[in-house]
Amino acid sequence: MLKWLYDNWMKATPFLALYGFIFIFLYVKDYSYPLYLIWLQTVVYWFHEFEEYILPGGFLEYFNHNMMKSNGGDYPLSKAGSFWINIPLIYLLMPLSAILAHYFSLKWGLWCAYFSCLNALAHVVMFLKFKRKYNPGLVVSVLFNIPIGIYTVWYFISNNLVSVKINIISIIIGILAQASMMIYGFCYLVPKMKKGLK
Question: Which domain, by its residues, includes 78?
Answer without folding.
Answer: 2-192
